[in-house]
Write a structure and sequence with these properties.
264 residues, six-stranded mixed β-sheet, globular
């Protein structure tokens, strides 16, 4: 029976056959070091352009990522206690949540982050979901024929994540700390679009990441106020929605305190 390390080695070998230009980096990695091998696998997955994926790779990848998700620990959203109405705040890795949908802060190409092991949420979600996610997004964008507009949302399967779906939305980028009225409207549109997509799919739970507040520089306090206001407004105006639990997922203590204060 293959160990998780055995699976990583095999997956790296397959990817290196596709991308031989990274063979030099491969020989510098300790063959028996799990962490090094795992980071190299993530790097190769991040770097890999959309292309046909072998069944051998997918089967092994899915087996590995499913086991890894179990080892990280799956968080059951039905057990989360709302702060107010149907709204929860949860601090941790969004890829552990078994919500019907988790929200990904995507870029306009919708293909995920190509920077090896980058800490953005886009990279984290794609890395945990598996290569199928980039492939399906690529096909979706080919059919669309243009980049994804800011403030819109699209839904895909979640593949190896505990959630059922991933809803991808493109948030506004803030330059020189100048937040315009348009930026505020577009951020609100991200939340509304995600809620609409989830409702159309008859989903019962959705977990939002902190859209635009990381690499895109939207001020956290203002972004949180917009997020909470938009969600509350949507729930009030759409009492028939299937959504019964909205989760604001945060990673830092600062973000948790901001959401708790706003909601209370």
């Amino acid at each position: 029976m293959m160990t998780q390390l055995d699976k990583i080695r095999k997956l790296n070998k397959i990817l290196l056959q596709e991308m031989p230009e990274y063979q030099i980096q491969a020989v510098q990695i300790d063959f028996d070091d799990y962490k090094q091998q795992r980071l190299f696998l993530r790097s190769l997955m991040n770097l890999r352009e959309p292309m046909p994926i072998s069944e051998e790779f997918l089967n092994l990848q899915d087996d590995f990522l499913t086991q890894e998700a179990l080892e990280k620990g799956i968080v059951h959203v039905q057990e989360l206690i709302p702060v107010v109405e149907n709204i929860c705040v949860w601090q941790g890795d969004i890829t552990r949540l078994d919500a019907d949908a988790i929200v990904n802060a995507a870029n306009t190409t919708m293909l995920g982050c190509f920077l090896p092991c980058h800490k953005c949420i886009d990279n984290t979600i794609h890395s945990s979901a598996g290569l199928q996610l980039r492939d399906v997004c690529f096909q979706m964008m080919l059919e669309q024929g243009h980049e994804e507009p800011i403030g819109s949302a699209k839904i895909t399967k979640a593949y190896n994540l505990p959630s059922k779906y991933v809803i991808h939305t493109v948030g506004p980028v803030i330059y020189d700390n100048q937040v315009t009225k348009y930026d505020k409207l577009m951020l609100a549109s991200c939340y509304t679009s995600c809620l609409q997509v989830a409702s159309e799919k008859n989903l019962k739970s959705i977990a939002f990441c902190c859209i635009s507040t990381g690499e895109l520089n939207f001020p956290k306090q203002l972004a949180s106020e917009i997020a909470v206001h938009t969600v509350k407004t949507y729930l009030r105006q759409n009492p028939e929605t299937s959504l019964k639990k909205i989760i604001f997922n945060v990673f830092k203590d600062e973000d948790y305190e901001i959401y708790e204060k706003i909601l209370k």
